[in-house]
Amino acid sequence: AHAERTLEIAAELAGDAELLALRARALSMKPEPPRMRYAIAASLVATFALGLALPSLNLAPRLGAAERFENPHGVRSSLRLTDGSHVDLNSDSVVEVQMTGSRRTIRLLKGQAWFDVAQDRRPFTVQAAGRTITDIGTSFDVRLIDRSVQVAVGEGRVAVSTAKTTPTEIGAGQRLLSRPDGGVQIQSWDV
Questions:
Q1: Which residues contact 162 (CB under 8 A, 6 or more apart)?
Q2: pLDDT at 125
Q3: Are 87 and 79 in contact (CB under 8 A)?
Q4: 10-22: pLDDT as tens digits
Q5: CB atoms within 10 A of CB 111
């Protein structure tokens, strides 16, 4: 009975003009070419693979990883750090920058750099030849001269110390020379 009813419905629909027009229209449509399907599939696979590979490409510095910046003789550069601070690196100079969740540390390994420090809850320190210069909201210059360190403050205050000494603070318009023998000399400085 069920099969007979299905045959009756099919016979009724076979003569339906609207159904015949829809069938003809569907048959006249061209199927999507296989090349297009392959291109779409390939682009999806490439996007997925790139998403997996990006973290290992190290395109952006990772938090806590030290970055090294080096200027050859005769070249100066200006760096914008991830915290918004600026560093003007002089010719024949080298710095390493390390930003963590709790500290901002710069190591001046050679030469001279000017620091314009962005306000941040994390301390900003510059290490040079065994001395530590701690920013107290400022812009300042650090220069290695043989084994001595010269610090000049343009704005605000800094504290300069070694592992064996208490910090010495200087402010805007002052320059401090820290000698290898531990001696410290403070002078006025024209900004």
A1: 130, 131, 132, 178, 182
A2: 96
A3: yes
A4: 656 666 677 667 6
A5: 19
Please state, in angstroms and rounded to a whole number, the distance separating the CA atoms of residues 86 and 89: 10
Q: Which residues does 191 contact at the CB level (< 8 Å), separation at least 6?
A: 154, 155, 172, 173
Look up residue 16 and give its amino acid: D
CA distances from 165 to 28, 58, 77, 78, 153 (A): 90, 39, 33, 32, 20
Distance in angstroms between the alpha carbons of the first and the last residue of the chain: 104
Task: Identify how many contiguous H helices and E strands the chain contains and give both numbers.
Answer: 3, 12
Pick from 139, 147, 148, 154: nearest CA to 190: 154
Looking at residue 168, its pLDDT comes to 92
